[in-house]
Specification:
By secondary structure, the protein is α+β, with helices and mostly antiparallel strands. The chain has 6 helices and 3 strands. Helix content is about 40%, strand content about 15%. Strands 1-2-3 form a 3-stranded mixed β-sheet. The relative contact order is 0.21.
Length: about 140
């Protein structure tokens, strides 16, 4: 699957790269990410200006969750168009009434049927609920590379 859902456990909300570096450092990190991707989505090659927003891409943090040690480790950064980024965070999309965008983006990018996309979303929320029961140790040492 090319486009995946990456729900951050509720206990880790606001515990991320952006909240652990100074604003100027975050700007440097995200702009480097955009430039490395030539200001295009690394998953679907689209840009936000084609989707009705003023910016081309957004910087998404890729996390690995070790369910045994409860360690949340930053493993990468990726430039995503707004639709792909919204799909990574369907909880927020649902609150905003934008779940249809998530479903359609999963279908288009992953060449999935609607039922498969909806099943995948449900399964992702099951994992999120389980992970949200625990406190996570944050590891952003990836940035040192």
């Amino acid at each position: 699957m090319k486009l995946t859902i990456e729900l951050v456990p509720k206990t880790s909300w606001y515990s991320n790269v952006r909240s652990n570096v100074k604003p100027a450092e975050w700007d440097r990190i995200r702009k480097k990410c955009y430039a490395a991707a030539n200001n295009k989505c690394e998953l679907c090659n689209d840009v936000g200006t084609n989707q009705g927003v003023r910016h081309a891409v957004e910087c998404h943090e890729i996390w690995h969750y070790d369910d045994d040690t409860k360690k949340q480790t930053l493993t990468g950064l990726i430039a995503l168009c707004p639709r792909c980024h919204k799909t990574k965070h369907p909880g927020l999309a649902n609150i905003k009434g934008e779940m249809e965008i998530v479903i359609r983006q999963l279908m288009v990018v992953n060449k999935m049927e609607r039922d498969a996309a909806e099943d995948y979303i449900r399964e992702s929320f099951d994992v999120w609920r389980e992970r949200s029961e625990h406190d996570w140790e944050l590891d952003i040492s990836f940035l040192e590379k």
